[in-house]
Design goal:
Structural class: alpha/beta
Order of helices and strands: HEHEHEEEEEEEHEEHHEEHHEH
Shape: globular
Number of strands: 14
Strand content: 5-15%
Number of helices: 9
Helix content: 25-40%
CATH topology of the largest domain: Aspartate Aminotransferase, domain 2
CATH class of the largest domain: Alpha Beta
Largest sheet: 7 strands, mixed
CATH architecture of the largest domain: 3-Layer(aba) Sandwich
Length: 391
């Protein structure tokens, strides 16, 4: 194989990381000049900005009026843990996973909470767990979009409207890029640094009326640290869902989230965000279809993510390598693209099969993905030539 010349066109923005993700187009630090720095988050100006963040989140995500939206500590992880520790234990729970973060929630429930009645439904990377076996008379915990596998649920049709249990959904790489069926979801969590490209450390917790009822009628058998407490005296702490955060938020990060929300609104809200992510994923999909060396990790096209697109090597010479050699080959591609400044942070997740993971969320420009494609071919051909030379 002859190594091709380097492509002439480079992505204007080489940030294709799956988290923290690229900032919105045109972003600069000037967007943060109105941040309430040096002010208390409980002061009028601070609370007003936190309330606005909640209101805009509701508007853009089209969250039903009866659902509470809160800003909580510790990113999406903190939001999920709050839900698990505060809500589970009242009835049996079905844990559903097909990638590393879903598997992590299983570990927490089984080994940390040590619940007695837990059923596990797991699938290999690239596949979706058998959702037909899930019992929604029990509580159910799942990810909407598998950030590390590129596999998502196609919709919420698998969840019955008359369920007796609660559905707890980690939606961090789906919110703002995929349509969440809130009527089927009792807890939804995500973080600012995913689809909207915000800053880290802050999580969002959305509760249905059914989840609130559980909180006010069920008390877990284990103690809850302050950072997890959503009730006081058996009643929901309503202030959490009105901008009165449990701990001190970064008002700089709040301003950045507000900037991203305003941008989202300017491009057509949820519909505009989904359209951008779909267009980006379609660019990669066409490339993969035409590529002799690359394939999708997600087996079923209906379950392929439009945000965290995970790719595998299908070239026979590479696919026949042992695991360590494949990992070295992938690292060579990632390093070459990083060195050229055309793509950063596109290696597969550490627990996932060897390959590439390219973020296609709404803050990524389609033109940048199109400019990246010839570089992917170049990097692969370069590594393949090195592989042959070493043989």
């Amino acid at each position: 194989m002859t190594t091709p010349a380097k492509p002439g066109l480079r992505p204007a923005n080489p940030n294709f990381s799956s988290g923290p993700c690229a900032k919105r187009p045109g972003w600069s630090v000037e967007a943060l000049t109105k941040a309430a720095l040096g002010r208390s988050h409980r002061a009028k100006i601070g609370k007003a900005k936190l309330e606005q963040a909640i209101e805009l989140t509701r508007e853009i995500l089209q969250v039903p009026a009866g659902y509470r939206i809160g800003i909580v500590p510790a990113s999406d992880t903190g939001a999920v843990e709050m839900a698990l520790w505060s809500l589970l234990g009242e009835r049996g729970v079905d844990m559903v996973a097909w990638e590393s973060f879903g598997s992590g929630w299983i570990t927490d429930v089984v080994k940390q909470l040590k619940l007695a009645d837990v059923r596990r439904f797991e699938a290999a990377y690239g596949e979706l767990a058998d959702l037909a076996k899930v019992d929604f008379d029990r509580d159910v915990v799942f990810t909407w979009n598998g950030t590390t596998s590129g596999v998502r649920v196609p919709n919420g049709d698998f969840i019955p409207a008359d369920r007796k249990g609660l559905t707890i959904c980690d939606a961090t790489s789906a919110a703002f890029a995929q349509r969440l069926d809130f009527e089927k979801l009792d807890v939804v969590t995500f973080s600012w640094q995913k689809v909207l490209g915000g800053e880290g450390a802050h999580g969002m917790l959305i509760l249905s009326p059914r989840a609130v009822e559980r909180l006010e009628t069920y008390k877990p058998a284990w103690p809850l640290p302050k950072i997890f407490r959503l009730t006081s005296g058996g009643k929901l702490i309503e202030g959490i869902f009105k901008g009165e955060t449990i701990n001190t938020p970064s008002m700089l990060c709040v301003e950045d989230y507000l900037d991203a929300l305003h941008w989202a609104k300017s491009i057509g809200g949820l519909e505009g965000l989904i359209a951008r992510a779909d267009a980006n994923a379609a660019v990669l999909d066409r490339f993969v279809d035409a590529s002799p060396w690359l394939g999708h990790l997600a087996v079923d096209p209906a379950t392929r993510s439009n945000t965290s697109v995970c790719l595998t090597f299908t070239d026979p010479d590479v696919a026949s390598l042992d695991a360590d050699a494949q990992a070295a080959f992938a690292k060579g591609i990632v390093s070459a693209l990083d060195k050229e400044g055309v793509a950063y942070d596109i290696g597969s997740y550490r627990d996932a099969p060897t390959g590439l993971r390219i973020w296609c969320g709404a803050t990524v420009e389609t033109s940048d993905l199109e400019a990246l494609l010839p570089w992917l071919d170049w990097a692969f051909a370069t590594q393949k030539a090195s592989l042959r030379a070493a043989a």
